[in-house]
Design goal:
38% of the residues lie in helices and 20% in strands. Helix 5 links the parallel strand 7 and strand 8. Helix 11 packs antiparallel against helix 12. The two termini are 29 Å apart.
Length: 365
């Protein structure tokens, strides 16, 4: 295999994730603690590509521990996401910088596909409950979404990254946020998600009876207590959780779909490489879509006769064609005496890859 073909094949492995995500009909909601995401991490190309691979799996992805003082890291991440997945359109919605001190503040950031979901409301919880003012270090930034593709149609997401030393109090106060949002928007389809620090030494079992978010039977905790959401082999804690309110919303969830996404295993990273991305795995859940309903035999046949190729199939077919053309072009240049003087250094190889990659994207449009 020539060096150009090898490099093209490496790029193909990067694109496979896009093809697989694009071809699915499910609707995925994710929550991901990025572990001190700011300017330093955004300057690491390998990390940014991995983040793009992870985030583009999701229709809506909540990002936490975003510490972007200059506001450049999040913009760069969105640009990388848009470059990585051209078959979907992406935007983001960010909270203000939250925290009790100027020296340490974070943002909640929602990255979402504008072609599958629409923001219909946002609300920064004021954290002024009488008798329990300033309960949160990072008060929830609540967002309401409309997703016509899903059976639930519209839902509300309440994010929370608790302070480890105050987990019990903040989780209990999150119940007040839930009731506040239900009354304000008259919407029962509410999901609470994020790094709750709801395990190991941060949430003692003796304190769980004091947390209304855990004792109210209308709330369904979808990530089990025995589920490890951490990257380090030396830890096994279920910090990151997804909780849904009400039987209707719980019934709109694909059974057993709530789980962490082990990107280290899927992307064949070492522990060190994975920790460069984050010390948490993202957690995710699938919502049932309109396509989940059972079709009549004649309806199914009609769809098969008239439907277009799956986007993933189109992507791979286009790439194989580009790979073949790239190999032929390189072979012809190698045989042409006019090109004997050409030095195929790294710059020229990547120039060819860039051109072929652009043609590949054009082919999949």
């Amino acid at each position: 295999m020539s060096s150009v073909s090898l490099l093209l094949s490496l790029l193909l492995s990067l694109l496979l994730g896009v093809a697989i995500v694009r071809g699915g009909s499910e609707f995925r909601i994710c929550a991901f603690n990025l572990h001190h995401f700011g300017e330093s991490k955004s300057n690491k190309d390998e990390v940014m590509i991995t983040l793009a691979r992870i985030i583009t799996r999701c229709d809506v992805c909540l990002l936490q521990e975003v510490r972007d003082r200059k506001g450049t890291a999040v913009s760069k991440l969105l640009q990388t996401i848009r470059w990585y997945d051209t078959r979907n359109q992406y935007d983001l919605l960010a909270s203000e910088r939250l925290g009790r001190t100027e020296s340490y503040q974070e943002q909640y950031v929602f990255v979402y596909r504008t072609n599958t979901v629409k923001v219909t409301g946002q609300y920064q919880y004021p954290d002024n409950m009488p008798g329990d003012e300033d309960a949160f270090s990072r008060e929830p930034f609540v967002v309401r979404f409309k997703a016509p593709k899903t059976s639930i149609q519209e839902f509300v997401l309440i994010p929370q990254h608790t302070t480890p030393t105050n987990t019990t109090k903040e989780l209990d106060a999150l119940y007040d946020v839930l009731q506040n949002v239900r009354r304000m928007w008259r919407n029962e389809n509410v999901m609470l998600l994020g790094d709750f620090n709801a395990d190991c030494g941060y949430l003692a079992k003796k304190n769980r009876d004091k947390v209304r978010l855990m004792t109210d039977r209308s709330l369904h905790w979808l990530i089990g207590e025995d589920t490890d959401t951490t990257v380090k082999l030396s830890t096994s804690c279920s910090y990151d959780r997804i909780v849904v309110h009400g039987e209707k919303f719980n019934g709109a969830v694909v059974p057993s779909s709530a789980q962490p996404f082990n990107f280290q295993q899927d992307y064949r990273l070492t522990e060190e490489e994975a920790l460069n991305v984050s010390d948490h795995y993202p957690v995710e859940v699938l919502l049932k879509t309109q396509l989940n309903r059972i079709k009549k035999p004649d309806e199914k046949q009609e769809q098969q006769d008239g439907e277009e190729d799956d986007p993933g199939t189109v992507s791979l077919r286009c790439w194989r064609e580009e790979l073949r053309q790239g190999e032929q072009g390189h072979h012809q240049q190698a045989q042409d005496p006019k090109h004997h003087h050409v030095n195929w250094n790294n710059w020229s190889r990547w120039t060819l890859i860039g051109r072929r990659f652009k043609e590949f994207l054009d082919c999949t449009q």
